[in-house]
Fold each of these.
Amino acid sequence: MHCLRQRYGGNLIHTYAGTNMVVINPLSTPSMYSEKVMHMFKGCRREDSAPHIYSVAQSAYRNLLTTRQDQSIVLLGKSGSGKTTNCQHLLQYLVSIAGSTGKIFSAEKWQAVYTILEAFGNSSTAMNTNASHFSHVVSLDFDQAGQVASASIQTMLLEKLRVSRRPEGESAFNIFYYMMAGADSTLRTELHFNHLAENSTFGIVPQSKPEDKQRASQQFTKLQAAMKVLGISGDEQKALWLILGAIYHLGAAGATKDGDEVGRRQFARHEWAQKAAYLLGCTLEELSSSIFKHQAKGLQHSTSFRGAQDESGQGDSSGSKVTALECLEAMASGLYSELFTLVISLINRALKSSQHSLCSLLIVDTPGFQNPRLAQQQRGATFEELCHNYTQERLQTLFNERTFVQELERYKEENIELALDDIECSTSRSVAAIDQASTQALVRTLARTDEARGLLWLMEEEAVQPGGSEETMLERLFSYYGSAQGENKGASQLLRGEKPHLFLLGHSHGTNWVEYNAQGWLSHAKHNPAAQNAATLLQDSQKKNISGLFMGRASGATVLSGSIAGLEGSSQLALRRATSMRKTFTTGVAAVKKRSLCIQVKLQVDALIDMVRRSKVHFVHCLLPKAEAVGGGGEPRVTHGESADSGLMTLDVGLLRAQLRGSKLLDALRIYRQGYPDHMVFSEFRRRFDVLAPHLTKKHGRNYIVTDEKRAVEELLESLELEKSSYHMGLSRVFFRAGTLSKLEEQRDVKTRRNISLFQAACRGYLARQAFKKRKIQNLAIRCIQKNIKKNRGVKHWPWWKLFTTVRPLIEVQLTEEQIRGKDEEIQQLKQKLEKVEKERNELRLNSDRLESRITEMSSELADERNTGESASQLLETETSERLRLERDMKDLQGKFDTMKKQMESMEMEVMEARLIRASELNGEMDDDDSGGEWRLKYERAIREIEFTKKRLQQEFDDKLEVEQQNKRQLERRISDLQADNEESQRNVQQLKKKAQRLTSELQDTKLHLEGQQSRNHDLEKKQRKFDSELSGAQEEVQREKSLREKLAREKDMLTGEAFSLRQQLEDKDLEVCALNLKLDQLEAELQDLNSQESKDEASLAKVKKQLRDMEAKVKDQEEELDEQAGNIQMLEQAKLRLEMEMERLRQTHSKDIENKDDEVEEIRQSCSKKLKQMEVQLEEEYSEKHKVLKEKRELESKLLSAQDKVRSGDMETEKRLRKDLKRTKALLADAQIMLDHIKNNAPSKREIAQLKNQLEESEFTCAAAVKARKSMEVEIEDLHVQMEDISKTKQALEEQLSRFQREKNDLQSRMEEDQEDLNELMKKHKAAVAQSAQNLAQISDLQAQLEEALKEKQEIQEKMQALQSQLDFQEQSMVEKSLVSRQEAKIRELESKLEFEKTQVKRLESLVARLKENVEKLMEERDQRSSSEIREKEQNKRLQRQIRDIKEEMGELGKKEAEASRKKHELEMDIESLEAANQSLQADLKLAFKRIGDLQAAIEDEMESDDNEDLINSPPGRRHYYFTRSDEEEEEEEKEGGATQDAYYSRYRYSSQVKDDDSEDRLYETTS
């Protein structure tokens, strides 16, 4: 408490409590939820981050990525504690950090979602100005990369009655006030809101304060903007506003209180009802009939089992009558429920996506604990508040189960003794008081029983029972859960209130007592047809925008039993969630009670808990700092500028302490600190932390197979040098104290970083060595190029070489045109292949869609079969309990029958004794007086009386016996029927289980095949994208080539124009040269004339010769430069030839690869078609097998009925036969006793009998020994069966390992294929670069040819210019005019500038060639790397094949062992058969002995028959009585004897009775009588 107060005072509202997070709702809006704070928590572990709601989201997201298991975050707390706000923060963090494909899920979209939910599902209460009145689950589905692939929202427990009825001082849903304040004039006119009603039956009136109206108008504008963000069109928005306006007008219309004079139910103000009917698109008569007609017929409770509805309807007709106002409220609530479900469907439509998802993260937000007393309200809580409190209790129970129950059970399973101080793991008893179900929930009865059941079940029963009321319901509830006399308040969670309809229920383990008012609660358990007619009214609306929305939604299963909305979704995870919820509503009691309005509350919460229980749960406890924290309009009490002391004073310590005790946070923290919260399986721990002990790895080797995981983990822990108290070794996992595992994780991270650094260093060293090798190769290439240049200098003046260099560019032009035509043809072929691949992809997509639909159908069928199986099993359990009860009754009746039988026997004996005594007395009197006839008459009369009495007693006994036998037969018949039903249901259950297993296996196979098809589709799409990129690149290359050709043509035209101008200038120069020649001739003539003056001009002549030599030296230098340029050009042409040859070779290999890929695509398509056909054949076979199984089931049922009839008839026959055997055995016993009395002194017969007895005992002993031997053999056979099962299990495990290796092999092959595709792509790039270099070389050759021509022209011009220069010099000396010289010098300078330009162009082309060479070398290196990686993949594939071969050898050995075991089994079976044969022979000997005994008895009886008859006739009555009594006493002595002798006697008499003939049997019966 001190820690929470200190942190809250410092504005730190988040605190860790073990694995849980505690958040105290701040009274102001803190600035701790910015985007900068989000990035601080991104990628962090929980141990490294501060307490924050983002830390919970990051922990759940991290667990989802590492374990690939579904996660869920559950928020618990009171109303107004900030659960919805924290839910928004969680979603904002997950969407911002995880991201989504294409950024389709943004924070703006989720803000829009919550804007809509707050408008349609929130309202103002005394505890919270913006309280939620529905529970919802936000599901985020993530793909393989950890991005959000799709999302959905499921809602439940909506307070739809808040539209028409709510507690005093609270408002309706926010949307009504937003719409009335923010609607524009057009919308107001359309909704008839220009003149609002002064009062409303529903209490929906406009807000009076201007600031409230302004705020509501702003919220309506924000709501419309949010709907646009989610893609809700204008027509859809208009449909929503029309339905809301109709609800408002229905409230304004009202209803008559007790009907009119005739008793009809109708509207109070028909003009407002007319407006509502117009907005809904129906007539007033249709609206009135949907609300007020057929109420008495439909308002029956439909949740009883089978025929209960009619019975309840006939019981009390007055209870089903409802008022017109209740009908109107039911219609309004039904309309709003349909509207809310439509809004959720539109939101899910905007959030769904067709991308493949891997796992989900669920965020559960429910309304908090509601307690009006906490808000200083003097009223009882409503039924809706009870439902919300019940939901919070169930979530708290889930927290206790995960925190205490499962943890303690895990300690117990792992044999960990932990002394925890007074930690209670019991659940809250208030949950049982609300939802405890009866064990006879499926029994067809309507009577009230004394079995305890919860409030929801009592409401349902009282609504059905005639005369049921809230008072009787509460009395029954108090009788089940109320406190007894003398108990205190804490002993019971249910107490009576001060008023009759009030009761107190202690929530949160008795820390939160809420007073409820049960007045009118039974109306929640009764169906009102007006609410059901709302959906029909909207679907049949005349307005297309309304009927279109609701007709489209009626075709899909978006609502589950009218309770859970938002089940639409096409992704696999969404279908799985929907199937889980439907299973909750269709199994067991839910299948019968799902239509009950009360039981729906429990079923909705069960579905929520079941969905959350399937995932890893993270709990966030939101605490309320003060009772009036958000009251009074939500004005903040404390700002950030206040001191910590003032912050401490804002906490209500008592309220905070009660919340902590109710949530069991202290106990959770105690078990977290004293126990072992972190645990890992041995194998997983060793595999994860093996890197911390490298010496163990070196010791055992990397491929060491661990046989004892526990021992290996102990060695690892000893090497880590952990404290003994920080961990504990269980049976299957190792447990750690809090914080120990995080330290190990940190050490592992350090070690991993070091290993990665070493790995990077090794990689960099390898790359450096490869670069050095590359440099060496480059050096060798440079030397080769230099050698080729030297060779080229030797042939540069060869005329044929000059001819070759001149003709080659002309051939290149023709070749490039042919290449362009070839490229165009290749483009056309590639386009055709693209169309073909597109068609195949569409076909595969259609097949995959069909398979997905088939999978969904099969999954739904499987769910239905499971549900029917579970319901059948539950019915079987009820029938089994009934059968046990009948068996107990039958045993009681059998005991009574036995006592009656004994009484009858005693009475018969008494009558017989009385008769004998009477006869002896009469005989004595007759001896005294033989002539007395009076005594004879008395004797005869007494005899007749005795016989009559005997007959009467016998008749009574027979009647009673017959009655008891009839009862017994009836019980046996009923037991046999129940047993037959039980066996049949068990067979059906077994068949359904087998079918479910087969369907699940087929479903898994289909899913695997579908995943394979999807991966192949993905590969084909990848190939298509690559092909599209290559096609676009080829088209760009063609365009570039065309542009280059046009550019070269323009440059050629320019050069031809320049050449023409140069030719003209040359002709002019020739003319000038001719003129100069003429002048030169003249000057020579003059020179000859002036030879005399030669001596005078020698100095000038020497000067001219010097200039001439200088000019010749310059010309030679220029010629050498031109020779060097020509050599470079030849070298480049050779490189061009090599590149062209390489390009041709690569093009051929590329064409071969394309053909191979086409063949592979064709094979894939054929295999896919074959597999699809196989799946279709399998589905047809399954369908035929299903029909065959049904047919066999019918035949077995008919056979079972006939067998039952045979068994009944056989039972009667066996009973008669056993009775005869019993009488015969009694007679034999009496005769044997008489015979033994007569021949008591006959020793030889006794010896024979003793010998026979000894023989019989020996035969029995041998038989017992044979039986023991047989049992031992059966035990050995069972052991062999167990060994066979173990061998089969190991074989199955090896087969699974083989399949896993096969999958790894397939993965490696797929990776090799991807590497091959990347290599092909690099080769294509290389070819494109080579083609580009060829084009550049062609341009270079053209420019070089032009350059050579220009150089030749320049050389000729220079020669002419030299001659002219000499002449000009001579003429200058001889005073020639200077204008011509200046003109020639300008032309020379122009030609020199052109020469410089050509030189720079040549240098630029040389640099371009060097760059292209570097690109080619890079591509070659990448190709080498790809080839090396391919070699490594092949080696790995070989290693996997070797492993597979070893596994196959192991499987062969196991097969040999299995054959050996089967051989041993066969030998044992032969031994058993021999023993059975011996046993049969012994039994034959035994029968022979019995036969001899029977013959001996028959002989003795024949000898003694006459003597016995004479003795019986002549003996006095007393002696005869002695024989009778003696036989009875001997029978009693025989019953007291040992089991073996008695069994032997009975068996002997039984066999003797079978041997005797009919005459002996008749004699025996006569003797007995």
Amino acid sequence: MGDDSEWMKLPTDEKVQHKVWKARLAGYEEACKLFGSIGNEKSPEFNKYAGIMKKFVTDTNAVAQEKALDAVIAFVENANVAGRVCQDIIQGVITKCFNASKQRTKEKGIEIVMLYIEMEKQDIVQECLIEGLGNKQPKIVVVTIQTLRMALRDFGNKIMPIKPLVPKLPKLLEDRDKNVREEAKLLIIEMYRWIKQAIKPQMTNFNPIQVAELEAEFEKIGNEKPQQQRFLRSQQDLKAKMEEQALAGGGGDEGEEEAEDEVDAYELLSAVDILALLPKDFYDKIESKKWQERKEALEALEKLTSNPKLEGGDYGQLVRALLKVISKDTNVMLVALGGKCLAGIANGLRKKFTPYGVNTVQCVLEKFKEKKQMVVVALRECIDAAFPSITLDAVQEDIVAALDNKNPSIKAETASFLARCFAKSTMSTLPKKLLKLFCTSLMKTVSDTAPDVREASFQALGTAMKVVSEKHMMPFLVDVDNIKMQKIKECCDSAVLLNMKGEPRSGQAASKPADNQPKPVQRPATAPSAAAKGTSSRPSTAHPSGKSKASSGPPKKAAAKGKGTKKGPAGGDKQEITEAVLSDEAVDEKAEDLFTADVLKQLVSANWKERLEGIQRVTDIVKEKSKEELKTQVVVRTVAKKPGLKDNNFQVLKCKMDLLAHLGKNTVFTKVSAGYVLSDLVDKIADVKNGSAVQEALSCISEACTLEFVGKEVITMAFEQKNPKVQSESLNWLSTAIKEFGLKVNVKLLIENIKKSFAHTNPVVRSAGIGLCGVIYMYMGQNFRIMYDNEKPALLKELDAEIEKVKGEKPPAPVRGLAAGGDADEEDDDADQDDKDDDKIDDSLPRTDISERITPELVDEMADKNWKIRKEALEKVEAILKEAPFVAPSLGPLPEALKLRLNDNNKILIGTTLGICSSLGTKLGPHCKVHIKVMGPAIISCFGDSKPNLRASAVSTLNVWMENCNLIPLVEQETFSDALKLENPNLRQELLGWLSEKLPNHKPLPAEFKLCIPHLLSCLEDRNGEVRKKAQDAIVPFMIHTGYDSVFRACSKLKPASKDQIMAIIEKAKANLPAKPVKAKKAPAKASSAAVVVDDYEEEVKAPSRPLSTASSEGAAESKPETKAKTVRGKAKAAAPATSKKKKTEEDTSPPMNLTVPKEKRFKDEKSLKVLKWNFIQLTGEYVEQLTVQMEKNFSKGMMDMMFNVDFKQHTKAIEILIKSLDTLTDETVGNLDLLLKWFTVRFLDTNPSMLNKALEYLRKVFTMLVDMDYSLHEYEACSFIPYLIIKVGDAKDNVRKDVRGIIKILYKLYPVSKMFTFLMDGIKSKNAKQRMECIEELGNLIESYGLSVCQPSPNVALKNITGQIGDRDNGVRNAALNAAVQAYMVVGENQFYKLTGNLNDKDQSLLDERIKRSLKNKPAPKAKEEERPKTAPTQPQRSASQTQIQRPTTALPKSASSTSMKKTFLPEFEYQKTEMEMPKLYQYDLDELFKPLEMPKINRARDPSPMTRVSPADASATIGVVIAQITSTDVLTCIQALAQIDELLKDEEHARLLGDHVDQLMLHISMQFRMTLSTHMNNEDVPKEDVVRLYRCLLGTLLALTQNPFLATKTSKEILKDLFNSLITLLLDQRLSLLNDGPQVVRSVNVMIVKLMEKSDYTNTMCALIKSLQDCVATETFSPKFSELVMKCIWKMIKMIPEIINDLAVDRILLETHLFLRNFPTSTWKSRPSDLPLIKTVHALCAFLKDGYILPIIHISILGQLNLIDASENSEVKMFLQKSLKKDPNSRNEMNGTSDDTDSGKSHQKPKKLNKSTHDMLAEIFKKIGSKENTIEGLNNLYDFKKKHPEADLDPFLKMSSQYFQNYYRLANEPAFSCILVQLGIGPTVPSAISAPSASSDDGLDVNFYLDKLRTIRAKCGLENTDPSKQENVMSKKEDKPEKAEKIALEEKNETVEISVKPVLSSSENRENNPQAASAPSAPSADVSELKQRLERIKKLAKS
């Protein structure tokens, strides 16, 4: 028991390894529960057990082992790291579980195997199981075979391939154990279920008895089609689909057929290398003069070629020998034997026979002249065997020549061969171009005199008709008479279409009984051969039947892949067969059904207004109809009726053009419909007002009918007219359309019209034609220019100048017309586009056929033994190529001859040959793909040459060829793997380097590319260092195409000594592997045939898709010893700068930066944790190594050497280069900004001052450049740089700190200030006192500039942290903290400030109080604030975390750097959030629960009024804050729901008051959402534009509701209003908004909203905000003139309102803003500006209106007295302007003399009399009473009496001791006119507290306002208060009692003393808040709650009485 208690205390991971089996048993049980309870598959808890899982399955105790297997099953099901230990666990299961005595143990072991297969580790599982077949224990072998059979049964042969098992079958069937033999038979039977007949060729080596038994079992199975039972984790969608099909009663036959026929018996065979088995004297005997010896050689070869599968290799010499026998041997028996041998080679090599296929066909066609049937049959077999390896396109000219041959045997056999080729072709492999060519020749042979020739020709034509359908065939059979046509149709009926195996295509026999159609030509989408070759079914010519629906999808996709089509074939065919021309009667009838008779009548009315109304109604009806409901032809022809598109009214015409554009975009718009409007559109294309609308309509029609059709028609019609304007505009439209659609026009047809434009007398037409040439040149290059060499020199000069403008530019990516390709995959789109381009160039360029000039004599000379003769022959070839600018694809024997010369012993001749090959590649153009399989391997062999110049020439030659074709042909014939096999270091390094450049951007490669992996791994261990380096660089490009798992499996087969080192390199490369695109997933759902095309690649790429996202690589890296990791890093780091001098000199000439890897990819890698996040406390080697690896790809070697050098001088040199690159490499700098910032953070750790100063200089310049570009830092860029910059702000050197501060201020313009606040808050935590001080100072500046809304994570937390630094030991930190706290105090006020800061200790509190008191006393003028605040971007002074920068529609966009540029918006970030993050959860709060009616508490008169008690006020405020924060969500739905909650809150007046403290926050978030929607949602195609409009409406609705609430509307601060006005005006200027549905309505709503804001918000804040916005507009050029104009219009509107709102304006604040404007932009500087409207019409007008409006109502109260906020020492232009204006105004001259300001009045009055002691004491006592709450009114009355008695007394010493409030009141109260007004308005006795009287808390204010509103409502109902502002004055003048008397009566009734305080006369926001209905009343009294209650009760009693 003691032992038990001992192990029971152990943790689980130690129990499972305990020696006692009971301990292990308990540990297994705990582990099983643990694994099942962990929810995160990447939990580190799993890593503890990963290394010991093999011990689980190999436990020696049977009981414990069974429990251990349960734990392993739970581990595999839940752990992401389970894949790492797959091999160990499976091996353990095989050795220890398969031989267990318990059946339950075996079953669990098998289940573990199945789970690993589900986890997509089937390759490792199958490899381990195959190893288990060789185990010595029969029990293990039996269970292993069972497991393989079950895996095959459950998962199918795709997941568990059969090919690796086939070689093991004979041995298993001969095993001495009966059970093994029986299980092997069952396994073979299961294989037969999946691959049917493909397994039978493998049974030839089986025991005949066993074969008979198996055949009997096969018969029992019959045609049973197996189905997959279990699915991989990535196949869950397939599982759901199959389950749906099963519930629907079937439908899975297509997939089963595909799976059945995918396995070819050929793939299961073992290849035989017959080249090695050839007799040594074979070539001597084959050349022997004795026919017997030749026969012996051929017979020996025939035996070898009888092998069904041959090993690839260089068969060139062997094939040439056989072709020589066939073509020249006189013995017909040997000719037949040679044909059989060649057929055997072709059948054995299949696709690898491609290099020899064309020559074989040429030779056999010529030899068909033989009459011996034996020879002809052999030749037929030979040519038929060669055909699958080539295409008809490659031999078209040879076939046409053979059909024109005089020998009837050749013609007959050629036609028969062509018929057999057609039978194996599809619509995509038999395009119209080839069909036309062959039909032209066959039309001649059908009239031949030889019957055999005629029959064969009829058969060929009939077969072609069956392939492409009669409809497509008939255009080429126009001249055929009825008899011949009947014969062709008979042959068509009897023709049988075959797959590439020669078998009838599936579905033909089954389709005959379906109806009476004798020729079922429609092939199902799942036809295996067609799918395998990338072809697909074509549309059937039969009438629609039940099958047409099922096959309607695939033809669209197949058509997109068609090679010979030049426009979307699917779309083109569909248009031709679905649209019929309707009669006029039918159109009228359908039009009446669609539109009412009134509408049709309006369309033809003579009144243009009626026509306008009619076309608008038509447009509305059309937009409401769906695509299926609308008959486009009816609408088009109805609109085109007279006056139609020739309408003279431009408004009507504009609506019609918009309607046509809508129809082209959103309906089935066919060529028939287009034919009715194109002519009229061309007539109107030059219309002055509607020309752009016409061009847009043409573009939309082009999207529906293809640009080729519309462009051809438009240009043809234009040049049929005489109007040069029409011709020029048509050419200009076509130029624009080509840029938008791509070169989807027939250039050959355009050339004639372009030449017409060149010859035109009008220069505008000539310029348009030249401009079109420039556009086409971007797509076709110099080849297009050659076509105009014969033009006049003057014209060529203009043409060359235009070409020079676009030289080097890449054609823009198509943005329109993309729907023509259907839903094809990217690979299909690329292939289709390539084919289209090839056809265009081929049709446009005249090509020369040089095959006739490549004579046999010339070829013999090229192979001569004398090198001089060979050289002369090559020179002849060069001369031939020089004469031909473009070469036809038929080259004869030239490619083979050049191939031999590339292996010449003479290096000079190799160089010459490479030059010829390069020239040939250029002249062939896209036809290079015909010969790449011959020329490619030969050129690659030159990579291994010892001479560098030859290697460089070979690389450039291969690049020329690759410009016109791709790598797939070379991969299919295993060229790269064969080349890498050779241990030639030069060849390896050049080839690997070349592949590293080509592979990343290449489309997916075939599976044969995986054969290169073992050779790549061997290169990693090559003795040559350069080879090793190139191999390391090539790992990632290789893995892009092969997947990580393929490389990982290849590594597992390496020797143990090499495995660890190479695995480390592979894991390192894995981190840089890009994520697989997800768009390919959509293809299988659309058409199963398309999915098969890329199926092989998809299977290989899917495998690494899971490990890429797992933590396996991280875990592996962590598990390795630290020393090893350091060693590897050290090597990598040392290898970076190590280059030879020669290499370095070469690389120094390259630009220092490029954009090889976009930064979006690096951001994705960092987000998916594929790389380390740039977040370190101490820099380690891992971060430096990672940065080096990332920068190597985008920086030159020379730059890398300097940037990562140990010498600081090299760093300085690198920075200088970077500074120079700011002007020349702007885009590259932006694209690599994240890497540069990371590199500078590393440099911050260096101590050299000169380098550091240079680094800061660069940072300052680059950030300034980014500000000018309107760039916004990405989140990852900021997070990797700003924290380390803030560390540097604490540097010991003053100049460094100063520079860093300047950089931080620039960063405010590039990154949201709220996020900068967070980084600065983190800087407070530093131990460096200087850093803390600088950070706190910056925080104080931010609070001063932006208010507390900038504080993060909340003002409460931020202020507590700041005030926490008051007690710091460092004096500088203390002062900075105190200053920052004072700034916060100034912003929020005393009560709110102390609530936010919390409790401080006494010492800190006293320091803070002293500093606040001193600051209040010596408060600087507000202008200082403006001077000190950091200069921020004028567009948005405040930005939150989710806010993006506005892209104003009228401002110029910065130059785009590429996809790597992150300008204007954070779009990539939002894209990542969209794909990676889940939908944010919206918190729902029941706000009604928080606001249930409450009883008001009784107020204790003995103490100050307490705030109104509410239910959880903190919770309510927090809830509102959360809801407001959700307004800025990137999710539209979340934002709308948050706005809805705010709207609900605003509906209840009492609840709405709780928003009082959140108004600024709410307004700010609404403004941010406006900007976010403008910059992100409007640019994001994934966000529906209806949602965008809905969001705009919701935002505007909430804003309107907010402004309708008088209490809330006036609480918005100046800065927030400025931000909101900027956002709304920017939205108003966005042209994109008007293009949306209901967009114009939104624009109108925005306009109204701006007006409402000005009318309802605080007038002073509104005016100040607009003046500040105008100042920003003048200060920077980023604003458009339209923006500035709208800001000025807003100010003008406010100016017009001044006479009405003058009493609500704080004139001093407005004058201060005006002063600041004129100080920054004095009047003298406006002379140089283009417009002085902001100064003259706005600022000066404002001052004038203020002066007039302020003087007249207030009876000449001095406006100059409102200049108190402006520093008197300044020479203010405002002051001078006002003084000047007042002098000119006769009504105001007295003001200048009497009441201007303190200084002026001092001059005009006598010096005040000095007080005696008694008078002084009396005044002191009076002011003491005024300062007391209880005796304020008494003191004021005493002061009034004193002033009457002693008018000469100087009160200044006493006034200076009082508050500014009281001083203003006293000064104004002494004005006689003002005193009269105060009495009239009822303000008499109510004055502000004189000297620091404590103000009511915010809660008090809330209660008071509550009762004041109640009081006003009841008074209005009782008629005691006149709510009409216009009558207010009259009502008040009738009152007999003065306000003083009324207040005294109220006080006497209460018998209590009540504190009364009145806000200042000119405080607009508080004034309007208390009395919104009386705009003329400057203020309203605030009273105690108890007073209001009593007054309320008194009024109620009066109402009842």
